[in-house]
Amino acid sequence: MSLKFEISKCVAWAPGLESEQDWQSWQQGEKALTNELALPQLSSIPAMQRRRLSPFAKVAIHCALEASGEYQTDIPCVFSSRHGDLQRTTKLIENIALNQDLSPTQFGLSVHNAAAGLFSIFTGNRAPLSAISGGQSSFMQGLLDSVSKLQANNLSRILYVYCDLNVPQCYRPYVTDDTPLGIGLLIEVPKGDKNTFSFSFDTQEISPQRDNQALDFMAFILSNRTELFTRVHQQTWLLHRNC
User: Fold this and answer.
1) Which of 27, 46, 150, 235 has a CA that sits 20 to 30 A from residue 212's CA?
2) pLDDT for the residue 1
3) Which of helix, strand or coil describes residue 56?
4) Is residue 229 in a domain?
């Protein structure tokens, strides 16, 4: 199976890498990820609403707003995350263990589609949206879902947002890589043969297993390479760029 699409805008946010120039410098080996994540300002969102947002929600919504641009009020969306807002969820679990009451607001903001829902509320976007998780393949699974919806529903464009932040300390022994990273992609139907991508996957183990598909994708999208292979377990994913 091969799916073709165009990426008309790519926005990313990570510790020490906040602007397009930061990411270009990172790809060229001139800048590295830092240990501290600065959060987006989200100045377009009223202060009272911003205060309710967790770091996870702030990064995800920033990427969604910046990538969607002029289309943010009516664009279909796919949000993907391996862990979701796990910092908030862990606090709820701890409250249960201590027999403490749960906050309905905190619970509502902890569910996997919370960031997608908040984005739709802030922008007035009533187009279809979904939120998915696919384990270590969450980034590629979300990309597959986005491109499949683009093609199956005859859409002109779709917004894809991926976000994962550091997991709480209690989960660190079980996670090989939890680099904080948010990515927003404005994906469109190809306008021609140039600058298009074809997306496919297979069950053959033809490449080394990778820990962070999203970072691999950023290194690829900022380079002149024409192919990206990334494997997780028995799935090998391939992105091909037609320059």
Assistant:
1) 150
2) 53
3) helix
4) no
